[in-house]
Amino acid sequence: MNKQIGGSILESLRIGRKNATDAEGIAAATLANLDAFAEKLPDGWNAIIGENGGALSGRQSHTARNLTRESDLFLVAAGLSGASVDKFRNVNIENAAAHCTEATFMIIGSLAGYSMGSATGCTVTNADVVGNSCTGGLIGGDVESVTNCPASNVTVTVIGDNDFSQGLVQCDVAERGGLIIGGGFGGTVDNCTAQGTGKAEGNEPVGMDGISCLEMIVSITNCTSDVPILSAQGSHAIGGLCSYGEETTLAVSNCTASGEMSPSPPGAPAGRAEACAFEGCKRNIALNGEALPETGATDRVYESAEQYGVSP
């Protein structure tokens, strides 16, 4: 897994294409509106970013616009940054399109596909993200803290099909979609807002929501979600704020969830999280005119521990 930021700006631009010339790298960065930032630095495109962006001021804001990420190759993670260990600070993503087919990306987001570092003060505005697993408006898969990160006018579409007719299913497709994080594998989410749409096009998707699929997240606090969740062909563990979690205690506090839902059986704010602890949460979500329970339920088994014969 490679570093996404380090050395000079020009060196970092070649991470995605090692044989790119300086002119090609600068042209691509200019399309993403990074030229205004680079040209303000004393050394311009040759300015040293440093490992984890350590040579840059944490107060600087960086904006990338008009990004498009598409490929017919199989990749584990895709986004402005693919798989990253870096700390993202004050990065603004505007007008982004990150799309995959069922046979390509596993983890996809407009800012990062898979992030092992924290994200603070990052935004995503006017984005369209399509993926088959861990599809996030901002980050596809995350293991660290995400704080003060709003998503506005973002559409996340989960593709692929599940078939539960034979019992246990390994949901590596048609699973986990959220406007902030697709799948959370640790860490916390605090003071994030989500506005846009979540939808699924295939059969029986699992784990769609406004903020993040809980998975193994420690807590979600002070978050607001106004996101309709739409699925044409059934669904499982769908939540207005968050979807399903492992059977461990997860704290959700001082959050608000609103929006319309077409799938069933959903929950508000959580799709399936039997051991979750809810405190001070508000919800304004109804299905067919009826108020939804705090936590939804499903008769389909898909937890990893259950699939491998381990009791939760």
Write up this protein:
The chain has 312 residues and is mostly beta strands. The chain contains 4 helices and 31 strands. A hairpin with a 2-residue loop joins strand 30 and strand 31 (290-291). It is globular. The model is unreliable at 1-6, 50-55 and 303-312 (pLDDT under 50).
User: Number of helical runs?
Assistant: 4
Would you tell me the overall average pLDDT? 76
Proportion of beta-strand residues: 35-45%
> How far apart lie the N and C ends?
31 Å
Number of strands: 31
Largest sheet: 10 strands, mixed
Quick description:
The two termini are 31 Å apart.
Characteristics:
4 helices, 312 residues, mainly beta, 31 strands, single chain, 41% strand, disordered C terminus, ten-stranded mixed β-sheet, seven-stranded parallel β-sheet
List the helices and strands and how they pair.
Elements: H1 9-13, H2 22-31, H3 35-38, E1 62-69, E2 77-78, E3 81-84, E4 88-89, E5 91-99, E6 107-109, E7 112-115, E8 119-120, E9 123-131, E10 133-136, E11 139-142, E12 146-147, E13 151-158, E14 175-178, E15 181-184, E16 188-190, E17 193-203, E18 206-208, E19 212-213, E20 219-221, E21 224-226, E22 229-233, E23 238-239, E24 242-244, E25 251-253, E26 256-260, E27 266-267, E28 270-272, E29 277-279, E30 282-287, E31 290-291, H4 304-307
Parallel strand pairs: 1-5, 2-6, 3-7, 4-8, 5-9, 6-10, 7-11, 8-12, 9-13, 10-14, 11-15, 12-16, 13-17, 14-18, 15-19, 16-20, 17-21, 17-22, 20-25, 21-26, 23-27, 24-28, 25-29, 26-30
Antiparallel strand pairs: 30-31
